[in-house]
Specification:
mainly alpha, 292 residues, globular, 59% helix, disordered C terminus, Hypothetical protein af1432
């Protein structure tokens, strides 16, 4: 049986989460800039010796190097591209959260990472279909970070899975995030927003994390991006990549069609492309196609 938790309790839990490196925050800021390039990315990474070493180690895995050792950061970044680099950076920087046990969602370890990565890929592919311009790289980073609040809220939801699923399925609540809020006073989006502020993540990341399930509640200027990530989240779940009990228990906002021009054929193609790219990235990160 759970009880309502206080804002101070949430903040205390968030403060226990290690900060992401400064280089990670800088990369997120860079991704929001439309005119950045790989050289800008390299200039940030090369100032972080630990991150440089981790990237070179990952790129030199059997799946990526093909037996040829890569010793240059410039070569590594140009070889794998921006999406892969961001995936490598944040799979390490936020590993404690991405690979947490989500017992409160009856999910498996690594489900959060797999869901967020698929959402990130989907968001980048959906962005060009937005009726108003959405930066695909910003969409990718927002998708990559959008559900991190689940790693913190999960502890407070333990033992509620059957009750929450039944309540949502019976129509007692609009979706699972509303049920979370009613149960303990917060939902994973609200907690993710607080985490983003604690980490000092640049806008629009905190706002997208906060409103990705209910995009019409966000700032009107951000709604094209909000709807892109909102739809990408659903697409990720449609591929079978959710986070346990709440999978496919979040309603899609029909207003997405006011912001995104996607046909059923487009969605089917995006789902297919997401799966191919997801498997490529996962294989490259581990060398075996499985999460670390």
């Amino acid at each position: 049986m759970t009880t309502q938790i206080t804002h101070d309790e949430i903040l205390a839990a968030i403060k226990k989460v290690p900060l992401i490196p400064t280089s990670g925050t800088q990369l997120l800021q860079l991704a929001n800039q439309k005119d950045h390039n790989l050289t800008d990315i390299i200039n940030i990474i090369k100032c972080d010796a630990a991150l440089t070493g981790y990237i070179l180690k990952t790129v030199n895995s059997a799946a990526m190097s093909r037996g040829k050792e890569i010793t240059s950061l410039d070569r590594a970044v140009s070889l794998v591209g921006e999406d892969m680099i961001l995936s490598i950076v944040f799979s390490e920087a936020a590993a404690q959260l991405f690979h947490a046990d989500l017992d409160g969602y009856a999910a498996n370890q690594g489900d959060l990472w797999r869901h967020n990565l698929r959402s990130a890929i989907a968001a980048k592919k959906i962005a060009p279909y937005a009726k108003l311009e959405v930066n695909p790289d910003t969409a990718f980073t927002c998708g990559l970070m959008h559900d991190l609040g689940k790693a913190i809220i999960s502890h407070y939801l333990e033992g509620t899975t059957e009750e929450m699923v039944a309540a949502v399925d019976h129509g007692d609540f609009k979706d699972y995030s509303v049920a979370e809020h009613e149960k303990i006073g917060f939902n994973h989006s609200e907690i993710g927003f607080e985490l983003a502020k604690h980490w000092g993540l640049p806008e629009p990341l905190p706002s997208v994390i906060r409103y990705h399930h209910h995009p019409q509640e966000g700032n009107i200027e951000l709604q094209p991006l909000l709807f892109v990530v909102h739809l990408a989240d659903i697409v990720s779940m449609m591929t079978g990549s959710g986070t346990g009990a709440d999978s496919m228990r979040h309603s899609i906002d029909p207003a997405y069609s006011d912001y995104i021009d996607l046909s059923r054929d487009d969605i089917a193609r995006i789902i297919f492309e997401v799966e191919i790219e997801f498997n490529t990235i996962m294989s490259s990160l581990s060398g075996e196609g499985e999460p670390k």
